[in-house]
Amino acid sequence: LENLLAQGVEGRKILVRSDLNVPLKDGKVTDDGRIRASLPVLEKLAAAGARVIVTAHLGRPKGKPDPQYSLAPVAARMAELTSLAVAQAEDLTGESAKASAAELQNGQVLLLENVRFDPRETSKVDAERAELAGELAALTAGNGAFVNDAFGAVHRRHASVADIAEKLPAYQGDLVAAELEVLKTLTENPARPYTVVLGGSKVSDKIAVIENLIPRADTVIIGGGMVFTLAKAIMKYPIGKSLVEKDLLEDPSVTGLMALAQKHGTTLLFPTDIVMASGFAADADHEVRPVEDLENGTYGAEAMGLDIGPASAEAFAEEIRRSKTVFWNGPMGVFEMEAFSAGTRVVAQALAESEAFTVVGGGDSAAAVRALGFDESSFGHISTGGGASLEYLEGKSLPGIEALGA
Ligand code: 3PG
């Protein structure tokens, strides 16, 4: 970014890709971490006299306008968090965006509507993405530049993340630079023992990550909803009504995880006990069951696992306490419901108290840490990237970074 600022941006229209993909409830932003992390670059550019046009996605709309995915609540939250003048366009590259971009004054910010309302953003056809990138670039009218500050989205080969860098002089934003700097220390020379804690609900999202991190880490801890598919696939345990991805039960990359860990001398830690509930509800009755015997409790085969049990949480915390580097992605249970938040809380507490270099990655885990009332400064780094941080740690190349030629 300094290179761009050194050239002078006064009066120029600068297109910034930010990651403003935040959780919403009843039309309000429930965790504004990504918005706060995106503001410094916008403020820096505005202070230097740029006319800032921001493009971002929210959720996964199906390539057409859908009011529930409008960035309007984000614009409203932004306006509360900054003294910048933030206008909002009603579309992406249509009449509203063009007119608002043309009217933009030095130091003002224009937020375009959700870039994923346009099917070309995520298209697999290069020419379609290039066409949208061209339209976005055209909003900057001649003397523009592009800044990618959307660290959370750099793993996506999307028009506003990657292709746009072909259409405008492209620069790396400060947030992207800072995130890469931290993650580099994890891949290049992590202090050992190096523990990776993975949670969240979907094995399909995480299986490649688990496979790729097993050779790099000393210990991989697995919690969250994905435990049940693994318990059923690997250990053949009955899991009641717990979350399961049936098509993965015979998948060799799932059933072979233990062998892979053994081969690399990596400890793979699974929960030994689970909080089983009578159903998926904040006030559901619940009890702790051993992982090998989940169906023989009060709710029988109707029981649903919603959190790791206390013995598992303590064992995970113990492992975290003896580590020198810890990377955590994904909650241990349904932390949004008080009754099923203990596992996530114990893991977060162990990280917060640890002297180790701790990195919390991923929208959900970062939101969990804040929702559970932890002080962000007790962690080494809270990343704005979920999939992006994981793919970086896996050693994959990131299209949004590649496109910058960095
Ligand atoms: C994220 O939430 O990890 C990023 O904003 C990317 O979103 P996506 O997974 O929908 O591409």
From TrEMBL:
The protein's Enzyme Commission number: 2.7.2.3
Catalytic activity entry: (2R)-3-phosphoglycerate + ATP = (2R)-3-phospho-glyceroyl phosphate + ADP
Subcellular location as annotated: Cytoplasm
Pathway(s) where this gene product acts: Carbohydrate degradation; glycolysis; pyruvate from D-glyceraldehyde 3-phosphate: step 2/5
Main location: cytoplasm
InterPro entries, sorted: Phosphoglycerate_kinase, Phosphoglycerate_kinase_N, Phosphoglycerate_kinase_sf
Enzyme class (EC, first level): transferase
Keywords (A to Z) from UniProt: ATP-binding, Cytoplasm, Glycolysis, Kinase, Nucleotide-binding, Transferase
Binding site for substrate: D19, L20, N21, R34, H57, L58, G59, R60, R116, R156
Family named by the database record: Belongs to the phosphoglycerate kinase family.
Subunit structure: Monomer.
Matches recorded under HAMAP family: Phosphoglyc_kinase
Name listed for the protein in its UniProt record: Phosphoglycerate kinase
Originating species: Nesterenkonia rhizosphaerae
Lineage: Bacteria, Bacillati, Actinomycetota, Actinomycetes, Micrococcales
Gene: pgk
